């Protein structure tokens, strides 16, 4: 089926100078990488002669020196420490102003005069403030407030010593509670205590079973022919579903 078509494809001839063929060749030349770098490859094969004093080389060196940070700061480093018009740092107004500002901002220098003079205070011993301070110290002093009595030596059988011992024994808490020492460690049952009895009485008062008597526990006899009983029977008979 395709044999005739394959034979016709081989027999078709297109003229090489047709616009379509020329356009295709021009596009192929434009997108060809080989043709794009052909001039560069031929120039590399011919070699080159570039002297050190060539204009492009000198231009590149000048651009490098301008962009170099070292060359940029070389003049500043050379001029550092050289002052024009001032023989020393004190004659330079900017340096003098900076030194003055540093002195004003320095806290140590600001307080130097105070620290030098704070220990050199001369106060007369008879000044009013000093006398008042001494009197105040005497009033608040614990040593002058308490004057301990002489430690007298008394005989143990003197009447005042015996009386003092009796008074101490009466006021002593240990002697006062000595009769309760035998109770220490003995067990005790709470049954019969005041709190337990009070709790039981309160429970009996709050017990509803003892407070109220149930109706079914009360013994009474109802009269069968009483008017209210007869009326209740009639009402129950009228409302009964079974009788209805």
From TrEMBL:
Coiled coil: none annotated. The keyword Metal-binding does not apply. GO terms for cellular component: Z disc. One of its GO terms (biological process) is cardiac muscle thin filament assembly. The keyword Metal-binding does not apply. Keywords: Actin-binding, Repeat. Pfam families: Nebulin (PF00880). One of its GO terms (molecular function) is actin filament binding. Signal peptide: none annotated. This is NEBU protein. It comes from Chionis minor.
């Amino acid at each position: 089926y395709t044999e005739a078509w394959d034979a016709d494809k081989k027999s078709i001839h297109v003229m090489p100078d047709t616009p379509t063929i020329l356009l295709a060749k021009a596009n192929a030349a434009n997108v060809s990488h080989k043709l794009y770098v052909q001039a560069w490859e031929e120039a590399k094969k011919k070699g080159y002669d570039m002297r050190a004093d060539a204009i492009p080389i000198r231009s590149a060196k000048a651009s490098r020196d301008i962009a170099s940070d070292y060359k940029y700061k070389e003049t500043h480093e050379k001029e550092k420490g050289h002052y024009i018009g001032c023989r020393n740092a004190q004659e330079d107004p900017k340096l003098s102003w900076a030194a003055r500002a540093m002195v004003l901002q320095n806290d140590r220098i600001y307080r130097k005069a105070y620290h030098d003079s704070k220990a050199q205070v001369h106060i007369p011993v008879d000044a009013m403030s000093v006398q008042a301070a001494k009197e105040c110290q005497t009033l608040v002093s614990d040593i002058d407030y308490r004057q301990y009595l002489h430690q007298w030596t008394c005989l143990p059988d003197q009447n005042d010593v015996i009386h003092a011992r009796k008074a101490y024994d009466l006021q002593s808490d240990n002697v006062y509670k000595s009769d309760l020492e035998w109770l220490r460690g003995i067990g005790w049952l709470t049954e019969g205590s005041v709190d337990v009895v009070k709790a039981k009485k309160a429970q009996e008062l709050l017990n509803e079973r003892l407070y109220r008597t149930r109706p079914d526990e009360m013994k009474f006899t109802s009269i069968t022919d009483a008017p209210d009983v007869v009326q209740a029977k009639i009402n129950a008979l009228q409302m009964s579903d079974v009788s209805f």
